[in-house]
Amino acid sequence: MISYNDIDIQNIIISAIWLFWATSNIGAGKPEDCGNYYAWGETAPKASYTWDNYFDTKNGGETFSIYRYVQSTKPTAVPTLRTMHDAAYSATGGEGRMPTMEEWNELFEKCSRSYTTINGSYCIKFKGPNGNVLYLPWNGAYDAGTLVGKGTQYCYWSSVLDRFTTSNKNALMFTSMSKSSQPKYYGAGVRAVKDISNQSRQRFIS
Q1: Is 29 exposed, middle or buried (0-12, 13-18, 19+ CB in 10 A)?
Q2: 61-77: b (≥16 Cβ within 10 Å) or e
Q3: E strands present in the chain
Q4: Tell me, what's the pLDDT at 25?
Q5: Contact in structure between 182 and 160 (CB atoms under 8 Å)
Q6: FRET pair for 156, CA 20 to 30 Å: which of 16, 87, 170, 191?
């Protein structure tokens, strides 16, 4: 069962984003565990991550048919994954979803950050204004069958396509550099968020 932390809840007066953050990665048993790795738009982990085995690939890596798994490709809209291709939505039975890049940025900018080790696992610790904490393990990412950067960098998918890359090959990832455009076939971590209902919002601001 996925548990959620109201780390950002005291930011609601100054923020348009109302979220609970899951306390651990999809597929992880504890906050410090890396959990599963997913290619962007896929809902199951696998042994190797390449363009050849990416679910929507042809012609040596050019992706196609993005209209069937991205909600909008209009120039004025943020092109995010449809729920059927959202690994967090799939893993939580529709309770959670993958964060947008804006939501990742809010976590990074509005929480204090420090580095720590939990049971031998390197993590970044986010502390919200309400004192709640969230841990992200330095999980690295898969390119082909090789896990790169575990223990030295964190790599987590957002739900947002990078529409400015050729053939829509990249999506936006939350990394040690805050934001990065990476090939969608990479295997990276997924952290779920849960939208706060209108009823819950009134409880927090009343």
Answers
A1: exposed
A2: eebeebeebbbeeeeee
A3: 4-5, 19-22, 57-58, 62-63, 112-118, 121-127, 133-137, 141-143, 146-148, 155-161, 170-175, 180-183, 193-195
A4: 94
A5: no
A6: 16
